[in-house]
Amino acid sequence: MIFAQKPPMGWNAWNYFGYADINEQVVRETADAMVEKGFRDAGYNIVQVDDAWLLQKRDENGDLQPNPERFPSGMKALGDYIHERGMKFGLWFEPEMVSENSDLYRAHPDWAIGVPGLKPCPGRFAKWGVDVLKYDFGYIAPGCNIENLFRRMGQALRESGRDIMLAACYGSTTITPWIRSTGASMWRLSGDITDSWDSIVKVAKNALSVGGYSGPCGWNDPDMMVVGLDGKGFVGGIGGGCTLNEYSAHFAIWCMLSAPLLMGHDVRNTTPEIAEILLNKELIAINQDDLGIQAFTLPPMSNDDFILAKPLYGGDIAFCLINDWDVPKRMILSWEYCGWEVTDRVRIRDVINHKELGEFECGTDIIVPAHSAVVWKATRI
């Protein structure tokens, strides 16, 4: 088993391809595109296949098998292809329900993972070269202990003989007090995000409510990003799409949250504008900061301002001023609630636009466009 010292970065197939359109050709082309377009070298090094890879029937040995029409070369060959390009192979898995009175259970009780005395066997994932296992519980049968189920998989991964990162997917903040102790490196906090500004803000505020549980080796996961979906694909078709300003703010907020940065768009068709957002080295550096502290919300100075502060290694502080209103808004920043004195002199850099803004005392203000965010890196002089 392996732990994520910093928020994982990569791509997940779900948001764009969903159930219907994922196959090994798409995944291979995406891996190639991540290399060609500079995403791998920027730190996006996970290529994760989500739902719809699994054939709904076990092989003659009772083992999982991929859908031969979608993945004719098999999962090991796909993992090898990804590894050859210097990236990690991620795979989704969801345990399915089975009745103890069913013919399947009576014939193969050893396949069950929720029965006392039996344990899951992730050896198949190790043989395929899986590096990240997204373990997803979309439904929990009455009486099942979700904490124990995650602990059993964590222990099984530690015994698998391969360093596999556990990404827990339950979609609730209720797991945060104990999920790190299962060995999970990241954990989903809510239901699926949609390609809309309202969803982005809602999911972000949910993550802020449990910020104290996130840090090195275990990260709050507000969900894969929708940057670049433009209303297309599986999730894009649900949300309807966002503006470039909204996508820019979305990426900035995820970086401030120390969230896993998992792209969800069709990387093969990344536009220059979306690439500029996702490849912003200064924002990625804030996300990957060695301190690993998730941003917290500052008390509003006026008009219900939505402002985040993220302490950085070395003493700097990143501030994110988010305007979730439908009109431009003047926002006021004061650093007195971050451990600095309000009268301290501070040098500020705009990390989205890569510009030095000058030196300030006693705070400053700015007009932020509707559904937008400003990110400043501040250094006390």
Summarize the topology:
Blueprint: E1 9-12, H1 14-17, H2 24-36, E2 46-49, H3 75-84, E3 88-93, H4 103-107, H5 123-128, E4 132-136, H6 146-158, E5 165-169, E6 184-188, H7 197-208, E7 219-221, H8 233-239, H9 244-256, E8 261-263, H10 272-278, H11 281-287, E9 296-297, E10 306-311, E11 317-323, E12 329-333, E13 345-350, E14 355-361, E15 364-368, E16 372-380
Parallel strand pairs: 1-2, 1-8, 2-3, 3-4, 4-5, 5-6, 6-7
Antiparallel strand pairs: 9-10, 10-11, 11-16, 12-15, 13-14, 13-16
Helix pairs in contact: 7-9, 9-10, 9-11
Description:
- The chain has helices at residues 14-17, 24-36, 75-84, 103-107, 123-128, 146-158, 197-208, 233-239, 244-256, 272-278, 281-287; strands spanning 9-12, 46-49, 88-93, 132-136, 165-169, 184-188, 219-221, 261-263, 296-297, 306-311, 317-323, 329-333, 345-350, 355-361, 364-368, 372-380.
- With 381 residues, the chain is an alpha/beta fold.
- It folds into two domains: 9-287, Aldolase class I (TIM Barrel), CATH 3.20.20.70; 296-380, Immunoglobulin-like (Sandwich), CATH 2.60.40.1180.
- The strands form three sheets. Strands 7-6-5-4-3-2-1-8 form an eight-stranded parallel beta sheet.
- The relative contact order is 0.12.
- The model has no long low-confidence stretch (mean pLDDT 92).
